[in-house]
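Protein Entry — a single chain follows
Next Lines — sequence and tokenised fold
***
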Amino acid sequence: MHPQQPGQWPQPVHPQQQWPPQQQWPPPKKGLSTKAKVWIGAGAAVLVLGVGALLIVASVLAPPAKQAANLAEGDCVSMTGSGKELDLAKTDCAQPATPYVVVNKGEPRDGWGCSEGFYKLELPNRGGNLAFCFALNAKVGDCFDNVDGTEPPALVDCGRAAVKVVKTAPGMSVMGSECGEAADRYISYVLQGEQFSHVPGTICLDTL
């Protein structure tokens, strides 16, 4: 404080003014709002349901697994069902109505096929189509509708068949010598390089 000069009024003393402290607001919370979390949760649920529905539809539309997938070369088979339900069942070669034996099995791709004289069949299967080459496991008295095609000939009633099996032989037929006069044609799988001990190597046929 300065000393008071003669003739001067004392100067009032004002205390230093104090302002109230500035109010501190809490920092904004990080993360998603409750509403955003609800929308994300709902979207995730819809996605899960959609994927589940697609899997169910794919399972329904996919062709069923076939018994034929378990077949191996040398197995004798009979056909079951028809159309999309067509399947092949392994059967004892000595049983009736078992007209085919598997010669080859694979996946139908470019260049895959059966040798001349054998019959090819493709089946839709879960995981990819199946392809087979068949020889006839014919028995005396069996009748077929057509043995000259590329697909397995159907085993049919002899009243509406094209050929009838009159004799079978395990070995190779030389110019039909094993068939005799009762047959007018024959099939020899031995000549084509295939022979199984449990099915005939030569099939003698009579045209009906």
Observations:
- The beta strands are 76-80, 87-90, 100-106, 119-123, 130-136, 143-144, 163-169, 185-188, 202-207.
